[in-house]
Amino acid sequence: MLVSRKAVALVSVAAILASACSGAASTPSAVVTTAPASAPATVVASAPASVAASVAPSVAAKPCTVGVSWNNYQEERWAKWDEPAIKAALTAGGATYISNDAKSSAETQANNVDNLISQGAKVIIILAQDGTAIKPSVTKALAAGVPVIAYDRLIEDPKALYLTFDNKLVGKLQATAVLAAKASGNFAIIKGNKADANADFLRSGMVEAGVPDVGKTDPAGKIVIVGETYTDNWDPANAQKEMEQILTANNNKIDAVISENDGMAGGVIAALKAVGLAGTVPVSGQDGDLPALNRIALGTQTVDVWKDARLLGKAAGDAAVQLCANPDITKVAGTAPFTSPGGNTLTSQLLTPQAITKDNLNVVLDAKWIDKATLCQGVTAGSVAACN
Predict the structure, then answer these.
(1) Domain parsing of the chain, residue ranges
(2) Which CATH class is domain 18-165+308-353?
(3) pLDDT (tens digit, 9 = 90+) per residue, 279-291?
(4) pTM here?
């Protein structure tokens, strides 16, 4: 399904900004700030500050405005991690940052892209609410000579640069960890938004780990999928309702849950807790949300596939600065061809995620992604090595 990905090397940078680690999400204004100035691409989860300091930033050839169209800025990750990293890279390259928020509306996002162009954006980064619905806006931007970066979510347009983590690998890591905890029984799969190609990328990775594909049965008869559903907008409340329905339909006889992200995992665990199963049923997630990492330490979540969003944000900012100087996406450093599910050959950078379990929580501590007090809140003394 995901083929023709040529391995490329990216230099990882963990020391992005102290500000990347603070501040609650708030809706961005139209102009947020102005800066004064099949093998995946591989990025190590973090790098020493000395390495980061040695990397010269990209520099725009002339003053350049970069617009970011967020699909839902209220989600914790975007404001806390991705946006500060993008801003830092643009600042280093002498570019100006503007943004707007679609608030989970594909129609609003289409108008927002037009708005960014009218404000003078010379490059646009799009976190797509709906990868299909946004395509006419992408076409319009490209026709206006504005390069487009598809950020973290697929847009099936060969003329747009695609930046994301290897989401197929994310799904594989999720399923591998859950299967290590529970190799057989009744499984539930809580997928993300149907309009987001990542939901299906993740699902295909689960198959590689040994989970039956959609509509298929396990030849060995060990894994029975008793519930599988997409979740509108990756919403935790929707995920909780879905999990409650699956539990009811199966008389609470659920042995494992593969949830595609941390927010939904929180909803799933709430449903499990209500019937006394939290902590006994393995649950997966992704994104490195701080509450999810705390759940790993507490034992109610089994794995969190960590995608250091600071790296992705920096990659997008650096790419945007390069595109300010040269709009040819194939000339962006570190890119490689990627064959999409739609059969398009895309110019891409795919970063490598890392599975976090109770055994390696020190990784996110060492990377200063989370502090010890937050990670270990409520954890029984001596029960988790990283909390000692």
Answers:
(1) 18-165+308-353, 167-307+355-387
(2) alpha beta
(3) 999 999 999 999 9
(4) 0.79
